[in-house]
TrEMBL record:
One of its GO terms (biological process) is SRP-dependent cotranslational protein targeting to membrane. Part of the signal recognition particle protein translocation system, which is composed of SRP and FtsY. SRP is a ribonucleoprotein composed of Ffh and a 4.5S RNA molecule. Belongs to the GTP-binding SRP family. SRP54 subfamily. PANTHER family: SIGNAL RECOGNITION PARTICLE 54K PROTEIN SRP54, SIGNAL RECOGNITION PARTICLE SUBUNIT SRP54. Gene3D superfamilies: P-loop containing nucleotide triphosphate hydrolases, Signal recognition particle SRP54, nucleotide-binding domain, Signal recognition particle, SRP54 subunit, M-domain. It comes from the Bacteria. Keywords: Cytoplasm, GTP-binding, Hydrolase, Nucleotide-binding, Ribonucleoprotein, RNA-binding, Signal recognition particle. This is Signal recognition particle protein. Composed of three domains: the N-terminal N domain, which is responsible for interactions with the ribosome, the central G domain, which binds GTP, and the C-terminal M domain, which binds the RNA and the signal sequence of the RNC. Its EC number is 3.6.5.4. SUPFAM superfamilies: P-loop containing nucleoside triphosphate hydrolases (SSF52540), Signal peptide-binding domain (SSF47446).
Length: 445
């Protein structure tokens, strides 16, 4: 989905650039694109329907700030709803129980269960200062027991031995007993997974669940599995009272649709995301960030919010009207544009929020210089009298020297500013519209 949804949305943002309001028609157009993109990305149909309904609800009647296009506002709504669909805030593990807190790992073979068990052990040791024990109840694959032993050691946790001739239930109970007697805070129970759902497997894990009564029952699912992930989630949800999902292999997840459906289908929040094969490749799942990644549009939401709070709407409006009415654009207007830019967090912070390809073109060194230039320009205009600001043509050599001295710059800096102002003035005449607004639209669109 990362590429398709992004492509569709950015195309849409472009086509909507000329429109000033969010209307029934342009919302419909956008929702059609989003719907297609989500379905292509393997998001389950009921999830898509629900999602579309919520976006529509939020979008209609939304005020569009003059410096943003309806397309940009819609993208930010889509982003927020994407995040809301995948969960709100950050959900860490619940360990609020008499220790040891038992965590049961469920999921298909190859989903990344064993790796995730070790990653979680490391997370609990390092981030939550817990004493952690792991055990494997996978009696079908001796190699799986050995694998857990190896990765547990890497995680710095302790491993409880088990053998293929034991019953999974007995293994888990023995480990629990050991954990109690040796004051472990957490017991992680890795389980057997088959390549596909089967009855015997489900019965076994249900029995295991009943025996050890875990405080967390995590469903581990490979993000690259698409629609299959949804079917698997449904089957596990029917068998077990899931408390959380771990979405693995998000580093290779090209479409991202799984994350959208899985939360709803599993009926539990996504708590962690696997981001690499390495033992430290686990992140607490952050829905906002994942939504941003799915959109792949840089932090466009932050940009939108910044513009909304930063721009003095009244001033921007006045300026736009002034230019439209053909009144002259003077240095006061120029100053007002410069200070609006600054209010929006400065050029480089705006650049940070743009999609990476765009930001890369700009380059940090250029940005730092641009910010210094903006501050200098402001200083120069502030050293001018009101008359000079309204009639820049009055500014001849002696006035230039006075202004330069007042602003602590060289006369050539004053000249450069006057040149830039002249260029801007010419551009404004050509545009006959809100200069800053158009500029912003071009940046975002
Ligand atoms: P299990 O059969 O469910 O226990 O799965 P494993 O833990 O053995 O993992 C299966 C494969 O997926 C292994 O090669 C892991 O290294 C790999 N893997 C697990 N999690 C991740 C992840 O988040 N990112 C990547 N790239 N690989 C992962």
């Amino acid at each position: 989905m990362a590429s398709t949804l992004t492509d569709r949305l950015s195309r849409l943002v472009k086509t909507m650039r000329g429109q000033s309001r969010i209307s029934e028609t342009n919302v419909q157009d956008m929702l059609r694109e989003v719907r297609m993109a989500l379905l292509e990305a393997d998001v389950a149909l009921p999830v898509v329907r629900d999602f579309i309904a919520r976006v529509k609800d939020k979008a209609l009647g939304q005020e569009v700030v003059a410096s943003l296009t309806p397309g940009q506002v819609l993208v930010s709504i889509v982003h927020k709803e994407l995040a809301a669909t995948m969960g709100e805030g950050v959900a860490d593990l619940n360990l609020a129980t008499q220790p040891p807190a038992v965590i049961l790992m469920s999921g298909l073979q190859g989903s990344g269960k064993t790796t995730t068990t070790a990653k979680l052990a490391k997370h609990l040791i390092e981030k939550r200062k817990k004493k952690v024990l792991t055990v494997s109840a996978d009696v079908y694959r001796p190699a799986a027991i050995e694998q857990l032993k190896t990765v547990t050691k890497q995680a710095g946790a302790e491993w409880f031995p088990s053998t293929p001739d034991q019953k999974p239930r007995d293994i888990a109970l023995a480990a629990l007993d050991h954990a109690r007697r040796h004051y472990f805070d957490v017991l992680l129970v890795d389980t057997a997974g088959r390549l596909a759902i089967d009855e015997a497997l489900m019965a076994e894990i249900k029995d295991l669940h009943a025996a050890i009564n875990p405080v967390e029952t995590l469903f581990v699912v490979d993000a690259m599995q698409g629609q299959d992930a949804i079917n698997t989630a449904r089957a596990f949800k029917e068998a077990l009272p899931l408390t959380g999902v771990v979405l693995t292999k998000t580093d290779g997840d090209s479409r991202g649709g799984a994350a959208l459906s899985v939360r709803q289908v599993a009926g539990a929040p996504i708590k962690f995301a696997g981001v690499s094969e390495k033992i430290d490749g686990l992140e607490v799942f952050d829905a906002e960030r994942h939504a941003g990644r799915v959109l792949g549009m840089g932090d466009i939401v932050a940009l939108v919010e910044e513009v909304q709070k930063g721009v003095d709407m009244e001033a921007a409006q006045k300026l736009a009207e002034k230019v439209k009415s053909g009144a002259s654009f003077d240095l006061n207007d120029f100053l007002s544009q410069i200070s609006q830019m600054k209010k929006m967090g400065g050029l480089s912070s705006l650049m940070d929020k743009l999609p990476t390809e765009l930001a890369a073109k700009a380059g940090q060194a250029d940005m730092d210089k641009a910010e210094r230039d903006v501050r200098r320009m402001e200083g120069i205009i502030n050293s001018m009298t009101q008359l000079e600001r309204r009639k820049p043509e009055l500014i001849k050599a002696s006035r230039k020297r006075r202004i330069a001295a007042g602003a602590g710059v060289q006369v050539q800096d004053v000249n450069r500013l006057l040149n830039q102002f002249e260029q801007m003035q010419t551009m404004m005449k050509k545009m006959k519209g809100g200069g800053l607004m158009k500029m912003m639209k071009r940046m975002g669109g």
